[in-house]
Specification:
- 84% of the residues lie in helices and 0% in strands.
- By secondary structure, the protein is mainly α.
- The protein has one domain.
- α1 (13-45) packs antiparallel against α2 (48-84) and α2 packs antiparallel against α3.
- It is flat.
Length: 116
């Protein structure tokens, strides 16, 4: 299967941005559908206390997802620069370092209450 590439610097900007944002929109819709199904199932079959727990942890889940998404976006910029320079070793290092940053910061964040 031949991969299809798109030159984002040529063409109508609104169309290019819409095509670029479409997978993100679809991913967000699937995430919301998952949250809705989770709330319906927990609320109907487990009870009100469990539904409250799901609602209370939703913001923490969103925070962790947003943090990982931000770090991945920043790491993606660096990795794309190395990919454009055709430096495969630096591409691998960029991906690995992004993962290390996420793992280290999450380890500190989630173990903070046990450090005290």
């Amino acid at each position: 299967m031949k991969s299809r590439t798109m030159n984002m610097s040529q063409g109508r900007p609104l169309y290019l941005l819409a095509v670029f944002a479409l997978p993100l929109l679809i991913g967000n819709l699937f995430q919301q559908a998952y949250n809705l199904a989770d709330s319906v199932i927990v609320g109907r079959f487990v009870g009100a206390e469990a539904l409250a727990a799901v609602g209370a942890t939703g913001s923490v889940s969103f925070l962790s997802f947003s943090f990982c998404n931000g770090i991945s976006s920043g790491g993606g910029i660096i990795t794309a620069q190395f990919y454009g320079a055709d430096d495969t070793n630096k591409v691998k290092q960029g991906i690995a370092n992004s993962a290390y940053i996420i793992i280290c910061i999450f380890s500190i964040f989630f173990s903070y209450r046990y450090i005290e």
